[in-house]
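hey so i finally got around to running the thing on that chain from the lab meeting. sorry it took forever, my laptop kept dying and i had to restart like 3 times. anyway pasting the input first so we r on the same page abt which one it is
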Amino acid sequence: MARPADLLVRKQVLDPTESFIVQAPAGSGKTSLLTQRYLTLLARVNKPEEILAITFTRKAAAEMRERILEALQCAADGRSAIEPYEKQTLVLAQAALVRNHQQNWDILTRPERLKINTIDGFCAQMVRQMPWLSGVGAPLNTTEQPDSLYLASAQASVASLTYSNGRFNDSLKAVLRAQDNNVDRVVKLISAMLARRDQWLRHVFDGEFGAGQEQLAAAWREVIDEQIQEVSGALEQKFVERAISVGAAAAERLPADKKKSEIINLLGVKRMPVKGDAAIRVWRGLAAMLLTSRKPRKTANVNLGFPVGDEFASAKKDVKQLFDELAADDLAVDALNRLSELPDKEFDEQQWLQLQALADVLKLAAAELKLQFIANGVVDFAEVSQRASHALGCIDEPSELALKLDYALTHLLVDEFQDTSHSQFELLESLMSGWQIDSGKTVFFVGDPMQSIYRFREADVGLFLRVIEKGIGDFKPVYCQLSANFRSDPALITWFNRVFRQSMPADSDIALGAVSYSDSTAGCESFDSSGVSVRVCENQVAEAEQVVEAVSECLQRGDQKIAVLVRSKAHLAEILPRLRSQSIPYHGVDIDPLQHQSALIDLRLITIAIVEPEDRIACLGLLRSPLVGLSLAEIKALVQIDYEGSLWDCINDQSRISTLDQNARARLSHLNTLMSEAMVMRKKFPVQPIVEYVWHNLGGLQTMGGVGSSDIDSYWQLLDQLGSKGELSIADLELRIEKLAATETPQNDDVRVELMTIHKAKGLQFDSVILPGLARKTRSDDRAFLMWSEQLIRSSGKNRLLLAPLSGMETDAHYAYLSGQQKQRSKYELQRLMYVACTRAKRHLYLTAELQLDKNAERYQPPSSDKPLHHLWSALESEFQSSDLMAAVLPNAEDSEVKLRYLSDSFQIPQYIHMPWQQNSEGVVAGGASLEYDWAGDTARQVGQWLHNWLQVASDSSALHNIPSRKKLVGELAILGVTSSELDLAVDRIITAFSAMQNDIKLHWILDQKNKVYNEYDVSFVGSNGIERVRIDRTFVEDGVRWIIDYKSGQHLSSDLNGWLDQEQFRHAPQLNRYAEVLNKKHAMQTRLGIYFPMHASWREWEYT
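ok and heres what got predicted. didnt touch it at all, straight out
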């Protein structure tokens, strides 16, 4: 491999005495650099715990830990290296091992001493360490599905209007009035705000709002004055002076009916005010005179103050010259538009009242969310982050935990720093609050601002730029930039540089999140073939066909990894069926939404009909569904338009039923019997088994269509989860159904085609990348209840918070200003998203877009500004214009008409499958033996239960190195019922089990599987005893083999351990064989079974036959 162009920079950033912020573009080997930096520091510290590495994903944390341990193991084994990078890593690892031996760290057998964690994991760890300071007394259970909690909190807040009085009641009324009393809209807006509360709660609602009002007013004044000063610099002073002179004269000549024109602001003006509202008014006047629809004017008329007549010819000539000069200067046009759109510095009284009312309502909603967390026993990640910040205290008054961490930590490394949010940034500031520059402490931030694409998670790329310019705390890290791309072919890198240098902003902007492009250099040799292919399509069908053709081309060429990357899963709708029709196997997770599948629609209708029988739309839908199969004429005869009673009363009305034929009457009678029983049992049992019972007995298995049984199981699990704590909320169900996706069909390792969103592809690489949908509209941001923006004031170096409320259906200037900034940020992020997508390719890149020809059918029309290709058009237009138009024959309207599926007239109503409660008093037919623990006593069972539960939630083997503290174990075991006299023994047994499991290669293998992994996997099926269910501890697929794992927490205390393990295998084999039988009925494949014994770190496995 040739020496990389940035080799000296790579050596520089390994200096352990200096702090750095490193820009590492796509393919530059960022993780390798972090590994080398970590090893360098490890060779110098007194304890490995002095180094803290923070990443943003579990995958990244696991990869960093794995690379560090692999390097240390290679050094311990005395292995050699060939490549220069590997040699350097080995040298650093050898030095770290020397330090390891000197200090007796024993890292290779105690890898948990390497403190590498996700930002969320680190926050949770701090909260657990300081429950009193954080305000969280109970163990944390973090949910990744908090939307239903936000919705419930918003609904509870609005519902309080009916029973509360006082200030909050008045504020809620004011907010509702501003939204035309649209309750559903207000609930939706509040719910959306709660999801992002970590961004506004800490600023707006600390202390009395009156104090915040003056702070906000001052912030608006500072930001607007700085904007005027900075943006006006793009306009030449002489041009501005001439324009004011021409404009002042024009203002005097405005017709009487045009006196309200902004040009009147130029009347009597001789020079441009430096700042203040006066300056804003003058800029608006100049924009009104010089621009129309945000573009330079071409002519002047009487309405602008330039009447007809020879005496005004000179004035018209002067203003025409201004028009022409402006038309030749895009930067000046942009500056004038931005200046004219600045709002007034001060809010009017109505705005302040609306902002205060909104503040009250959001405070109420945040309090309701706390109650939801308590009631459901869970929190979201934002709550964990807030509690962690609370535990650290503020910068001026650090807490006991902050002081403890200040003492313990010497070096901080942060990966993917470009994805940091403001709350996370403040957490890092608090963590570093006591650090001094000359104390030997260092920070190392690495990331790529050109790959910042998580703004929807509140990531702000401006923070990366801010640290480059201003530093963080007392630290001003040295800015270094890598350039070598070791991933892509040199020809592709040349293409990336050309396209994105033209497409991305020329200059970075902290406030707007603009990032200028930095060229990359080739770090690898050329491949045999490489290049970029551009294809233009007439419609979405043609585009899907072109994607499949490109995939086939890649497969024929021998590419091992092919990716189809999309911005939205919906863009795969036409592609998926065509891949299947061509028998092209593909791999994809959560890419095929289930909510529009007919079987899921039927299940949803049954659920609503049972939970909310008064919902006429759902009940009518059930009658029309394949499960009942009434025609529209039969439904009309049954339910007259004027009938306002219950639909179920209608079904029992013999005078109406008698008008139907015998088949319809039989179906209705069957439905009525099932629903009547379901309504009675709904008061006693959870909704899931009731819905399952009704669906099966209506012939659900015969109407599944293309939906797999595992997808139906996904719905059962969702119902089970939502109904486990009481009454099922249909609103919650609707939210969660939207996120259900078809279960991935198990594939072997020969599958070479990956389908995923661009966001999921970040950090990955492929031989060939196909990007469809470049001319599809992007989703516009929803209007928020409150617009906010945190902006750095360059003159003071301080951050200022700008706020503007959604005061009504029409937005005001302040809201529009911040909304405009958001749109600009979205535009810049979309450019970066395209950069991320393109740079996943190693050899080949395919771009497809649906374009229309102009009226002369000679050239393609440029894509509109709401489409991704618009932002690349200046660089790619020639390539697209030279591409032939690919057409596809669309189906006839008659052929495309939706065909409703019904059970045939010959379908026999099934014999009743018994309800679960008809089988036993437990509510569910057991599918397998319950957990058994062979060492006697309640304590043994409780320890076994704890270990079993822990293994179910362990995400991967890295969890084995986060041993719960003894204090935490005591608390959790006490909750399980372990008596105080037995607690020490129980904790010792768990710690012993952990010690064995940490070094067990087999358990690491079990936990680190990534392919088709399911924990606590519930499977329902129709057995000899009716509806039966089994719950599998863990299942996954490796090398085309399905593994089914069961955890057994028994302990054998005598000498013949192997004999006891053999007996346990014999005893539990029927249970696991039953699991395999059930899964193979759904999808037959080679299956192996295994039992893991955590108390002994032992294992037994066998082949299912």
